[in-house]
Amino acid sequence: MYIVTIEGLPYDWLGSLQELHAHVFDGAKLTVEKLAKKEGLLCLLAVEDASVIGFKLGYPHPDGVFYSWLGGVHVTKRGQGIASQLMKKQHEHIKTLGFDKVRTYGRNTFKTMLITNLKHGFDIASTFVDEMGRHKIIFEKSID
């Protein structure tokens, strides 16, 4: 397994990324249009045998904090530390881009990701209910 870091749209990996996104998020579509709207998009892809088995996507938020937007690992590859490796690489890369803080949102339905965020030094900054009525937890971390 190796990690590919792409600033901008991951054209060469798009099909594999979209397939994994649908797998992780119950069939939800990740369109090129949605990705293209994210100015400053950063894509980290865990690749094995020419397939994306994990991903971490993010972009700069208007308040100057890097927003770690979406991520996931194929169900057959979970528990191997892939999400942690992607997170570590993302934080290393955004530091080189000049960011000193990263933010992400979590939901109780994805408990393993909540735990991963806490294990990697994120603090709970706030909570809110989104437009679909889902409770979300806002995590923030200073990048050392």
The best one-word shape is globular
Largest sheet: 7 strands, mixed
Query: Structural class given helices, strands, pairing?
Result: alpha+beta
Strand order of the largest sheet: 1-2-3-4-5-7-6
**Whole-number tally of structural domains:** 1
Q: Percent of residues in beta strands? A: 35-45%
- CATH fold call: Aminopeptidase
Terminus-to-terminus distance: 26 Å
Tally of DSSP β-strands: 7
Poorly predicted runs are none
CATH architecture verdict: 3-Layer(aba) Sandwich
- DSSP helix count? 4
The top-level CATH class is Alpha Beta
Overall average pLDDT: 95
- H/E series, N to C? EHHEEEHEHEE
Question: What portion of residues is helical?
Answer: 25-40%
- Full CATH superfamily name: Gcn5-related N-acetyltransferase (GNAT)
Please state the CA-atom Rg, rounded to the nearest Å: 14 Å
Structure description:
This is N-acetyltransferase domain-containing protein. The chain has one domain: 3-Layer(aba) Sandwich (Aminopeptidase), CATH 3.40.630. The radius of gyration is 14 Å and the shape is globular. It has a 7-stranded mixed sheet. The model has no long low-confidence stretch (mean pLDDT 95). It has helices at 14-24, 32-36, 82-96, 111-119, and strands at residues 2-7, 42-48, 51-60, 66-73, 101-106, 123-129, 135-142. It contains 4 helices and 7 strands; from the N terminus they run βααβββαβαββ. Strand 6 (123-129) and strand 7 (135-142) form a beta hairpin.
